[in-house]
Design goal:
heterodimer; A: alpha/beta; Rossmann fold; 2 domains; 7-stranded mixed sheet; 6-stranded mixed sheet; 10 helices; 31% helix; 23% strand; B: alpha/beta; Aldehyde Dehydrogenase, Chain A, domain 1; Aldehyde Dehydrogenase, Chain A, domain 2; 16 helices
């Protein structure tokens, strides 16, 4: 099955030109679903069980009719359209409270297309740099013990500008044979970096970044990072909702402790089960690039909800041909918004929170997980 | 926020206090004073009066509405901290004669004494639990170090500070820290100081506590439990309604909430008829109560969609409406439900109860039995496999004054029996219960 429409979509100049790419997107989705239907027996069965005829996916309004697959499914089943050994990347998600991780693969061509997409998006957001920077990665140090996608993307992201040095917050403790969070180490090197001329970039879990900066603020540490420094965050605020940390508060904290202006804080929306990232604009809105569409669905009926209403976030993209990520239902609740002063017409996604009350912490829950092992 | 010797500190100020904790605890043990239970009981009694007078409404009212706890239930829980109630608890758990144990013989005396220092690792599923655990430790005269659960909203420190305000002598016996569970090295400091670790929570918390405890530190575990219903086709609508009420009002979040129903049958069609009958009742009861929170409803909607996707492989049948569901399957595994009004219904013939449920031994807590015909036979088997509470369907999660905790009396676990041979008069034991 060809992927003509996808190739055209990737050639489209403006990565946020949603209205002009609607038809191209619908065609690319149909192509992608058809590819998976042909190469993945289980996906074919899923389409059949929902009586989905791909010929009926003609316009952008029809993409909602592609059966969505919950991320849960990828955590409990392997669903691939390519032999496992041929994949360029086999990634797992960083796991949730359930402890299960999604298994998602990418082929070499997926990777190449992903690179094209990133190049366009990062050029748009002026994230490339030729200056050597000190990276502060609030994530895992790459070792043979990690295959978590957050780490992969964090480390991959640290190639966007040449690295002078990389500092990791979660490092492998050889003696104890386990990963250890070492925020003091990050603090020490942040202070050092503030005295150097190379800019810094921080990457990774916002929760750790927040805790470290808060601690530094409490200790009265006020730094001025070299010009061109950036704070970038992916991996979500989702683990974080319970702390009820307001983003505004976070921006003020960054300015206060690191001396980095709000416009130099870039956040990304991303999920291992969705092959597209959404960098935020200078108003911190995560606009949806043309490689992706978001459908917000009503949890009672799964029908699409209008702009401005909260519901389940369903991510649709034709970018992956190794795993059927064509239409994925996340564990997140969100709202689509239209209109932004930054000038981008594409709607933007507000992630409200993870489904389920976080830290429900039922007293019955723990007993269950061990029993699973008893079978 | 943390609490140390009656003074509150910000979390960022707690580290130097780790250094002085051991010395302060040992000094308290060394200083000849002892904590009299009467002091603790009187202080709790005064605190309940203050709560009743509305002094804590700003903290308590939001909790009641979040967890949909009726005012009457709250008053019931509160009454358990009143003087007569606490005195009764002590008597039930330690025995009527706990203040004056008979000597073993004319030369050998016995007395109940505190273990000394307890380190409580509290769970976060109920906001008042950390303070409750600590108060139990105090009641028998222990020094208590409490690690707050992640995401603690400060209620424990406020309640315990209020208790110290009423009875300042308690301040040497209460230390509350806010240390994340991953900071094992710090928690190990507390564990090494303590005579016993009192741990609440799931398997992860219990496992962590087990690795933290050195061989001469006692472990007292209040782990997560599972509860369920056992029924046959003679179950009355009234009983099914009572069970539905337990499921709806607790949203299956408590150890004592029913996660699912076992039916005495090996006929799948009979099972499904039973499930359908219960599903209608569950819906009706659910509609009469507050709706399930949006986030939980959304989580379960996706989960049920998934179950629907794979039902041909799993053999499950799903009855669902507006976030409420009943799911039948061929297995008889005891498992956590999806929670929030989603119930499993499984086959478990009476003569398979022991074989099927014994592997769950210490996870078992409450069972309710719905049968007009074989009630006693079922109850007998359930007790044999390790169920420690058999309750009426609507009363599974009711808390009774003096009832054991998962089949055990905490106050007994938090104390030692001390025996002394009397050689000289002055060595005679002074029990903490002498008034």
């Amino acid at each position: 099955m060809g992927n003509k429409a996808l190739r055209k979509l990737l050639r489209h100049k403006d990565p946020y030109d949603v209205s002009k790419t609607n038809q191209l997107f619908a065609d690319a989705i149909r192509e992608n679903a058809r590819h998976h239907e042909r190469h993945c027996e289980d996906y074919k069965k899923i389409l059949k069980s929902f009586s989905c005829d791909l010929n009926s996916i003609k316009t952008i309004d029809d993409i909602k009719d592609i059966p969505f697959i919950p991320t849960l499914y990828f955590k409990r089943h392997e669903l691939f359209s390519m032999p496992y050994e041929k994949m360029a990347i086999k990634a797992t998600s960083s796991g949730t409270s359930s402890g299960l991780k999604s298994k998602v693969g990418m082929g070499y061509r997926d990777l190449f297309r992903g690179f094209k997409m990133i190049r366009k998006l990062f050029s748009y957001h002026k994230l490339w740099s030729f200056r050597r920077v000190n990276y502060f990665i609030f994530g895992y140090e790459p070792t043979k013990h990690t295959d978590v996608v957050i780490m992969k993307s964090a480390n991959g992201f640290s190639k966007v500008a040449p690295a002078k040095k990389r500092y990791y917050a979660i490092r492998w403790d050889k003696e104890k044979e386990t990963f250890k969070v070492d925020l003091d180490y990050m603090k020490k090197h942040l202070i050092k970096a503030s005295r150097q001329s190379n800019p810094i970039r921080t990457i990774g879990f916002p929760a750790y970044t927040y805790f470290l900066l808060k601690e530094m603020q409490d200790e009265g540490i006020r730094l001025t990072m070299p010009k061109g420094s950036l704070v970038t965050m992916g991996g979500g605020w989702k683990q974080f909702y319970q702390e009820a940390v307001d983003k505004r508060q976070f921006y003020t904290l960054v300015k206060d402790v690191l001396g980095i202006e709000e416009e130099n804080i870039v956040e990304f929306f991303g999920a291992v089960e969705h092959p597209v990232v959404f960098p935020d604009c200078k108003y911190h809105h995560m606009h949806i690039p043309i490689y992706s569409r978001v459908i917000i669905r009503d949890p009672d009926t799964f029908q699409p909800l209008p702009t401005g209403e909260m519901g389940l976030i369903n991510l649709v993209s034709p970018m992956n041909r190794a795993t059927p990520l064509t239409s994925v239902m996340t564990d997140d609740l969100g709202i689509l918004h239209e209109g932004c002063e930054c000038g981008v017409d594409a709607p933007w996604l507000e992630v409200v929170g993870r489904v389920g009350v976080k830290d429900i912490a039922t007293c019955a829950q723990g007993a269950d997980s061990l029993m699973g092992k008893q079978g | 926020m943390i609490l140390y010797k009656g003074k509150t500190y910000e979390n960022s100020e707690q580290e130097p206090l780790f250094e002085t904790l051991e010395k302060d605890c040992l000094d308290t043990l060394d200083n000849n004073k002892s904590l009299k239970p009467a002091m603790v009981i009187d202080a709790c009694d005064q605190l309940t009066q203050n709560i009743e007078a509305g002094k804590f409404d700003h903290l308590i009212q939001p909790l009641l509405s979040t967890f949909d706890i009726p005012e009457a239930h709250f008053e019931h829980y509160l009454s358990m901290f009143k003087k007569e109630a606490l005195e009764k608890k002590v008597k039930i758990e330690l025995g009527e004669d706990h203040k004056t144990l008979d000597p073993l013989d004319e030369n050998n005396e016995r007395a109940i004494r505190p273990l000394g220092i307890l380190f409580h690792i509290a769970a976060g599923n109920l906001d008042v639990l950390p303070a409750y655990s600590l108060i139990e430790g105090l009641l028998v005269g222990n020094i208590n170090i409490l690690k707050l659960p992640t995401g603690d909203k400060g209620l424990s420190v406020k309640l315990l500070s209020a208790l110290i305000e009423i009875e300042p002598r308690l301040s040497d016996y209460i230390y509350v820290f806010d240390v994340p569970s991953i900071e094992i090295d710090t928690l190990k400091i507390f564990a090494d100081i303590a005579d016993a670790i009192v741990v609440w929570g799931g398997n992860e918390a219990i496992k962590a506590a087990r690795t933290m405890a050195s061989p001469n530190t006692k472990l007292i575990e209040w782990g997560h439990k599972l509860s369920f219903a056992y029924a046959d086709s003679s179950a009355t609508d009234e009983d099914l309604r009572g069970l539905a009420k337990n499921i709806v009002t607790t949203n299956q979040l408590l150890c004592s909430s029913a996660q699912g129903i076992y039916v005495d049958t090996n006929d799948r069609e009979e099972l499904d008829r039973f499930a359908k009958r219960f599903f209608d009742i569950l819906n009706e009861v659910s509609n009469a109560h507050q709706p399930v929170p949006y986030g939980m409803k959304s989580k379960n909607a996706v989960e049920l969609y998934y179950e629907d996707m794979v039902k041909e492989d799993t053999g499950k049948r799903i009855y669902k409406k507006d976030g409420v569901s009943v799911i039948t399957s061929d297995d008889s595994a005891l498992e956590l439900s999806m929670l929030f009004r989603n119930v499993w219904v499984k086959m478990l013939p009476c003569d398979s109860i022991v074989k099927a449920l014994k592997p769950y031994k210490n996870y078992l807590q409450t069972a309710t039995v719905l049968s007009e015909k074989k009630y006693e036979a079922y109850v007998g088997k359930l007790i044999k496999v390790g169920v420690v509470r058999i309750k009426k369907p609507g009363e599974m999660s009711e808390a009774l004054l003096g009832e054991s905790h998962d089949g055990m009396y905490p106050l007994r676990l938090y104390t030692n029996i001390v025996e002394t041979t009397i050689t000289i008069e002055k060595c005679k034991l002074e029990t903490p219960y002498q008034s």
